[in-house]
Specification:
Largest sheet: none
Structural class: mainly alpha
Shape: rod-shaped
Order of helices and strands: HHH
Length: 128
């Protein structure tokens, strides 16, 4: 007796090319990726806030310098104001370099964890 196409499909289970283990693995990987991206975004927002505060501080320092320079009554007084401002700017530049290095290192660490088979892709959190 001939079996119709409809009878064959009802009696057997469909072939699943993606077993449930693959789906679970994909879900964990996706969860880790989403967590990694949100951690990366948090770091970017933190760095942006810090640099904005830094730009505001630089504007304040520049404004104070301009005020003091216009108030200077002699060349030696103006030279002293300029020397103090230049010294402060050098300190700030050193701080900026240190901050930039630290921020870059944090971004690289987060990126490395996201791209490796390490903590974020396995659903575990590493140190921040």
């Amino acid at each position: 007796m001939k079996e119709s196409h409809g009878d064959r499909t009802q009696g057997s289970s469909p072939i699943n090319p993606f077993p449930s283990e693959f789906a679970a693995f994909g879900a964990k990987g996706l969860e880790g990726l989403v967590h990694g991206q949100s951690e990366f975004l948090e770091k970017i927002q933190k760095v942006n806030r810090e640099w904005l505060e830094r730009m505001q501080l630089e504007a304040t320092v520049a404004s104070e310098f301009a005020t003091r320079m216009t108030a200077a009554r002699s060349v030696p007084e103006a030279a002293t104001v300029w020397q103090e401002w230049a010294s402060r700017r050098m300190e700030m530049a050193a701080e900026d370099g240190k901050r930039l290095l630290e921020s870059s290192q944090q971004f690289m660490e987060t990126s490395a964890r996201m791209l490796s088979n390490g903590s974020l892709l396995n659903g575990r959190r590493g140190s921040k």
